[in-house]
Amino acid sequence: MTRLPVILLLTLLPPQLTSAKRLPPVKVDPGINEGIRYVAPNDDGRRGYIEAWNVGTNKKLWELTLFTNRIDPNLEEDVQWVFIKALNIQDGRLTVTSERGKIYQVDVNTKAITQPDSLSSPSPGAIRDVPDAVKKALTNGSPGKEYDLSFRISPSYLEGDFNGDGKMDVAVLVKERSTGKLGIAIVHSPTGKVTILGAGVGVGNGGDNFEWMDSWQVYSKTRAGHASDETSAPRLRGDALLVEKSEAASALIYWNGKRYVWSQQGD
Question: Is the pTM of this model over 0.70?
Answer without folding.
Answer: no
